[in-house]
Amino acid sequence: MDKISIPPEWVFSPQPMYIIGTKNEDGTPNFCIITWLGFSFDGGPHLMMTVGGTKLTKTNILREKKFSANMITEDNLWLADYFGNTNGEEGEKNAVPYSYKQGKLVDVPVLNECHWAYECEVTRVIELSGAHLFLAAIRNIQIDKKYADMNMKKIDLSSIQPVIYAPYNYFSIKEKLGEMGEWKRHL
Ligand SMILES: Cc1cc2nc3c(=O)[nH]c(=O)nc-3n(C[C@H](O)[C@H](O)[C@H](O)COP(=O)(O)O)c2cc1C
């Protein structure tokens, strides 16, 4: 096929979305969306995320060195959108109803509305020009009880219904295309 070049500013980075939960100085919770986020592995699973500018989430993580990452699914998308479009420095985010519990292994707020959440401890902070890159070890995973009997090695993504962020739109996942290593059946 013929290709054309476009500038790096037009990067298209579709990916799953997470609500990041942090503890404020007075112990109350704060939540926001981070989508510059990916996974890594070094002795155990890690989460890498980039928090730009100045925001309460960043101040909290720099002080506490921990956070929760709550997967955004179709049923909690608009709660997430509220968290991602409100500024924690302007006051507690309590214009809409939601609830949380403290993490089981890490002392971070975990949203009850989310079915899949990671409790993370920051292991490395890289200061960039304006943004901070956080590398964090996943210490515990909390999942909805209804997924207890799910095959964890072959998770049916469609039953979890994660939202995909394709800047600046939100999409749902359609259908399973196949399994790893099946290329001979498809080419
Ligand atoms: C869909 C979406 C994705 C976002 N992704 C990021 C991100 O990857 N990094 C970031 O620093 N801010 C991101 N934000 C912005 C923060 O969520 C926003 O600045 C929020 O108000 C910060 O909340 P806080 O002030 O309580 O920390 C995103 C917002 C939305 C709505």
Describe the structure.
The chain is built from 4 helices and 12 strands. The protein has 187 residues and is mainly beta. The protein has a single domain (13-186), classed as Pnp Oxidase, Chain A (Roll). The strands form 3 sheets. It has a 7-stranded antiparallel beta sheet. Strands 1-11-12 form a 3-stranded antiparallel beta sheet, with no helix packed on it. A two-stranded antiparallel sheet has the order 7-8. It is globular. Bound molecules: flavin mononucleotide. Flavin mononucleotide binds at residues 30, 32-36, 50-52, 55-57, 84-89, 165.
Structural shape: globular
Element-level helix/strand string: EEEEEHEHEEEEHEEH
Radius of gyration: 18 Å
CATH topology: Pnp Oxidase, Chain A
- The low-pLDDT segments are none
Strand order of the largest sheet: 3-2-6-9-10-5-4
**Helical content class:** 10-25%
What's a concise summary of this model?
It is built from four helices and twelve strands; from the N terminus they run E-E-E-E-E-H-E-H-E-E-E-E-H-E-E-H. By secondary structure, the protein is mainly beta. The longest helix is centred in the N-terminal third of the chain and has 9 residues.
SSE topology:
Blueprint: E1 15-16, E2 18-23, E3 29-34, E4 37-41, E5 45-51, H1 56-64, E6 66-71, H2 77-84, E7 100-102, E8 109-111, E9 116-127, E10 132-143, H3 157-160, E11 164-166, E12 169-171, H4 183-186
Antiparallel strand pairs: 1-11, 2-3, 2-6, 4-5, 5-10, 6-9, 7-8, 9-10, 11-12
Bound molecules: flavin mononucleotide.
Flavin mononucleotide (FMN) binds next to strand 3, strand 5 and helix 1.
